[in-house]
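Request: Give me one sample?
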Amino acid sequence: MLGCTAGTPIEIWFQDEARVGQKGSLTYVWAPVGSRPAMVRDNRHSSAYLFGAICPARGVGAAVITPVANMAAMNVHLAEISTQVAPGAQAVLLLDRAGWHQRGKRLCVPANITLLDLPAYSPELNPMENVWEFLRGNKLSALVWDTYEAIVDACVSAWHFLIGDPERIRSIGTRDWACVSV
């Protein structure tokens, strides 16, 4: 249930996390038909998790970078999202059903956030999947990082690239079915 009263502004946010690092995936690139462009791929295993969330209506986002994806990392991310919700507003955060998103004693949901599960097995409903594709295609693919710190720096740079362009967030994240009207 929403923790707000009539007249409280509602913001729709989308959340997801992506693994970034060595042993990463390749992305599609434009190339002449019949050619096979060379691309580097690292076979080591260091990685970081980029927890990200966007509010397309406001063109803003919130992210944290962690070495693991677990409930403690999700709690840190929820706290960060909470700081980015407009003052006096209530955020409805749409997210998948990952184990670390489950409600209970260990998940600390701030008062200005209400969690709403997307249907199971429906990543196409979450625009954060498109954000990850965009960032991998423009900032996080075909790279080799020497250290974990370099992976984190790349994630920070990629996230700043995204949030520095509010129109891009609106373009990638807006869904006609995810709106609040009065």
User: Anything to note?
Assistant: The chain has a mean pLDDT of 88. Strands lie at 10-21, 47-55, 60-66, 90-95, 113-117. The chain has one domain: 12-21+46-172. The first strand starts at residue 10 and ends at 21.
